[in-house]
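Trying the structure run again after the queue cleared.
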Amino acid sequence: MTAKTILVLGGTGKTGRRVAAQLTERGHTARVASRGAPTRFDWNDDTTWPAALRGADGVYVVPDDAGPLSHFESFISLATREGVRRLVLLSAREGIETSNPAVISREDTVRGSGVEWTLLRPVWFAQNFSEEPFLAEGVREGEVRYGTEDGRHPFIDAEDIAAVAVAALTEDGHAGRVYTMSGPRALSIPEALDTIAAATGRTIRSVPLPLDEYERHLTDRYYPAGAARAVTGLSELVRRHADDHLSDGVREALGREPRDFADYVATTADAGGWG
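Done. Tokens:
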């Protein structure tokens, strides 16, 4: 194996830090980049881009959902000029299935980059229950408010997303591939909370809300208006049972089944993830 230098954008985030850890475990150099990392990277400050890219063989690209497409296009163009040979983009299954223009445009930009590329389209992360305040905070407090009613979703473990990203960044056979990924089964929010409660011994109350009330709850406690609308929109998709189907990208990329939600819960509980 030839060791590679991989620039990991969003390198302190849910998927980025796992990509960096798995790269390091395999003997590669993970250049962790974010606004607060030793390798500073800011989507809104293009003066931070050249140093981050210099000497990198590949890039794990975590886009700025709130940023303009022009920034994304300029970065991809610079990456190719700097000699990057592989790009792996974190996209989203829901973004494609709802024809989100920004998600589609970013994918098209990477496809047209002229270098080897791989697109990752995961669903919602299992880790949202332990690392994203709009769910994790409620788990710790013992009451989760949600907008999905009895809709189910096949939450994916972020460790699986990272494993597919690392394979695409360091191995042959993944160029030009699109991996749409989910967990192995769909769960409702109450079913997911029951699994966490059983593993942790805590009582967790699930409180369904109408979508307008749920959006106000998100805005009041967690997110600016735009982000709250995005979470509410995804919740509406789950609510009408349009997002409960499975996708087999993990098996396609790695030759194994994705981790079950119960495995994520057991690992997180053992590590004290809910206090």
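Residues 74 and 250 are 30 Å apart (CA to CA). Worth checking whether this holds up in the mutant runs.
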